[in-house]
Amino acid sequence: MDSDLSPQDKKDLDKFIKFFALKTVQVIVQARLGEKICTRSSSSPTGSDWFNLAIKDIPEVTHEAKKALAGQLPGIGRSMCVEISLKTSEGDSMELETWCLEMNEKCDKDIKVSYTVYNRLSVLLKSLLAITRVTPAYKLSRKQGHDYVILYRIYFGEVQLTGLGEGFQTVRVGVVGTPVGTVTLSCAYRTNLAFMSNRQFERSAPIMGIIVDHFVDPPCSSQRPANMGQPCNYRAPDEEDGGPFAGAQDSQEVCTTSFSTSPPSQVGQHAPLLLCTVFYGIINLLSKFWDNPSDAN
């Protein structure tokens, strides 16, 4: 399906999808750190701000993402998934949500890889930034500590949703058409948070009112099974010096295409700031809904 693409367009599209996947993992995991993240905005972003978002990559997360991808790209029949789970100090665990980046066969042959696909991926990443903060796992991540910790696991292949329990909900973050298929980003999340006999969490309502079609130390032992997730709040002790993940370069530094830096946005330099304002407005409204459901009526 990519035979009509020029070699340069094919190279750029593959690079865009690769680094969009890496940034997607960063956004999801950083939203589960349990802390607020403040990043200074700029009306004149530099060429290193890929997708017009100043996201500082966590090296160990990039390392895990690249290890899961193993040189492959999300494509038709090849999904990249980020699983978020909760693990208590007693050793009990519960899957909370699964984010899925995949591609279907619907193609847009007339779309321009540069800059239309790039700019729409940028909007999709901003949508993800907002929606990661309104699913039930976000509130749980803000309360993690000695009682429980939030973990993440990245895998490549068939989507696994059986661990989310009965009645799980799904939300589509958005889609972006490309000449080789349509990029789709979605989330399936647990709604029944009743956990064990002595642990009761409220049952979460489905997410409502979201427009999705727009363009501490871990309480468990350090000995971890190979299939267990990584703690979202983990930091390498020698992060300042690169630590054990010095080889996992920041994707902002290694992302090179036919452009020497990220492609300049053609939606206007103030558009990213406006979009962020809209998304954070949505977050604030939905946060009030979660805290005081009765006020929403």
UniProtKB/TrEMBL annotation:
Keywords: Autophagy, Cytoplasm
Any one Gene Ontology cellular component term annotated for this protein: cytosol
Transmembrane intervals: none
Every Autophagy-related protein 13 N-terminal domain range: 88-195
Highest rank taxon of the organism: Eukaryota
Keyword Cytoplasm: yes
A Pfam short name: ATG13
Signal sequence segment: none
Localization (cell): Cytoplasm, Cytosol; Preautophagosomal structure
GO biological process: mitophagy; piecemeal microautophagy of the nucleus; protein localization to phagophore assembly site; regulation of autophagy; regulation of cell population proliferation
Family: Belongs to the ATG13 family. Metazoan subfamily.
Cited PANTHER family: AUTOPHAGY-RELATED PROTEIN 13, PTHR13430
UniProt protein name: Autophagy-related protein 13
Taxonomic source organism: Anabas testudineus (Climbing perch)
Gene: ATG13
